[in-house]
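Worked problem 6 (solution included).
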Amino acid sequence: MAQQPDETLLKADTFTNAPKVSKRTLTKEEKEELEKRRMAEQKEAVKLAETESKGPLGRWWARLQSGPNKITWSLALVALGVVYGDIGTSPLYTAQTFLSGQGGLANADREAVLGLLSLIFWSITLITTVKYVFIAMRIDNNGEGGIFALYSLIRKHGTWLAIPAMVGGAAFLADSVLTPAVSISSAVEGLKTLPPLEGLFDSDPDLTLMITVVIIVVLFAVQSRGTESIGRVFGSIVLVWFTFLAVVGAVNLSNDWTVFAALNPVYGIRFLFSPHNAAGIALMGTVFLSTTGAEALYSDMGHVGRGNIYFTWPFIKISLVLCYFGQGAWMLRNQHNAQLAHIASLNPFFQMMNTNVRYVAVVLSVTAGVIASQALITGAFTMVSEATRLNWMPHLQVRYPASTRGQLYIPVVNGVLLAATLSVLAMFRDSEHISAAYGLALTITMITTTILLAVYIWYAGRRVGAIVFLFVFLAIQTMFFIASMAKFLHGGWFTMLLTLAILFIMYTWDRGTKIERSQRRHMRPADFLPILGRLHGDFRIPYFADNIVYLTADPEMKRLDTDVFFSIFAEHPKRARAWWVVSVQTTDEPFTREYSVENFGTEYLFRVRIRLGFKVSQSIPPYLHQIMHDLSRTGELPEQKSIYPKVDADPGIGTIRYVLIHKDLMPESKVTALGAVALRTKYAIRHIAGSPFKWFGLAPFNPIVEVQPLFIATRRPPRLKRVTLRKPGSEGRMSENGAGLSADAADAGFGVVSQPVPSNKSWARAANAAVQDAALRRPLRTVADGETTVVMQRITDPVPQLKNGTDTVDGNDGAAGRDHAAGQMADHVAGKPSDRTVDRSADRSADRSADSVSDVPRSGE
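Solution. The predicted structure is:
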């Protein structure tokens, strides 16, 4: 008779809360949000239907709003705040840098000014408008932009493409560290130009640094609220800022419209190579400042949508052109103004305004500097997310604060960027020194993006266009890079060092993952079910736990990773009432809550896929308890009763142990020095990045982190020589005998037997016979799996094609041979003889004959 739970023992459960789920599939807030979205979609559909009936223009607008270039007023405002902050601060310092390089305002004659304006206009037009807005943004990966998303589309055309993608991505992330520091510090330093504050800043030189630190900390602290809420606030300010740029530029243009002659590119080319150009080729470094932020348009596309950038860019470009040309008109008008000759670091942007307007300009520029940082921060989140999908960076916890999945927040990246930005401020202290390192990394990103775009265009069938595109933009951006290299010794070394550090992380993670995946093995049900069935029914072995739960990264439901298999049988077998192999998949919908189960026809092994919306908390215990209760009610899971209290306070389910498997490189593994460094680095990064146990709410349940050896290819040490002992009373010395065994006996794992001595021939014959017999039945040597199992996206298709080079179920990349080898391992654990060979040349009927004499029948064969 089964023992019944004692109610007095279960009272302790009242002191803890069971991880339960409610009966509702949606919360009240979720229902309200979904209803609001549904009503908005219906309203939009009605409006489009009415618009479509209003002629050709209405039909065009209806088609636009139904496609990927959809425009919404709210996200257009967000685009202003998220995307254009960096490029919007360029007018603050571009003309100032130009005057410094030419030797002052007195040298800014008509040839120089028109040359500068021509180079700026055509750089913005070619780099930002043509390359990024018209070409790059039309090449997206499910709505996501950026260099990693671009690489995902073309990586099938060559493994070498990973090199420019990694280099460009690392450079962009390095620039993301410098942009907040240089943008905010330069804007805050503008407060020094206001007469009421001059004395305050003179008395405390570190005041600007302190204000900058406070602003940066606040900026990173509000990132968790999402780019949608931040963008709406910033968007309104950016709208005012660009309107201000256009107005002050137009006011100064009203007295001299002749500067628009600079629209002719001849002026720019002529001045660039003219001896009158005091800066030489370094002038292109100044011109490049006007295009910073162009890469952010592409990388931030997933946050705001392509259509909203298309819609807002014309306004942004017109405002920038008016501001730059207005500064040019002011420089021509005041070239010989004696009152300005004594001003150090003359800035035409502020000088072209009267004193009262300048107050407004300083306040707006400080705000614009903060917003410029936002563009790079959101771009960094996107880049890291894409790198994670490519297995170039560790899997990190991702949050989706907004109503669209494209707007994401990664806490670890946010913290690392904050720490790195504060370190830059502590090292360089002011914008003058930070700007020496700024921009160099971004030129590298632009060059690598050009290469990848040209490859995409080439394989899209437009080969002439690809050649023209590559030649034109590579020439322009190479000049930008050469000009920016002048900054190397003045601070650019830091940018390059930071780029190399990020590149090292990506390379080692990618290399380590490939080494581990080369050892990945999977087992078919026919290989693992018999031995698991025997262990489940072996009452001589006590239960390790009622339920053992493994988190897995394998997306296929119909097989078992050997990591899990060997974890169950390693050392003391982990017997359980039920083994669970669980995967978690994040969907594109915000509030999905679904699960699927594969039990392989058993009541003790369950593969579970949990599909959760990107807005849903991924705390696994409540959902797993629900699944166990559901299966118990349907009879698929035998009844489990917990007699004694436990942490989860659920007497209807037995004890649960969660297991996460990690790999570790063994000293005897045959791997190159670079491969060993890659693996060690990957393990160190994984430790710093944090455990998935915390992300999935498993920490309170004392989860197990299990380390399994990673054998790449073990080295064979030289064989031992046996030294025979002399009989007592002999000469008192030992003799050596170097005779060895046959190769088969050595492969079986036995040592060397000495040659038989005359006095003991019968013993020698018996020993040799035993060794030969053992050699015929030597155990099969196997190679351990190497991939760390983490939470993954499980696929429900019968035979899905796995990504990133993993094996398919029925034989791609040698999976059949690996599954066959896994079957041999299962036979060996079960104690069955095996004559199967790795190259699958043995007859399958011989396998079945061998299995038929075993006391454990093989299912499925």
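Discussion: Confidence is low (pLDDT under 50) at residues 731-764, 769-861.
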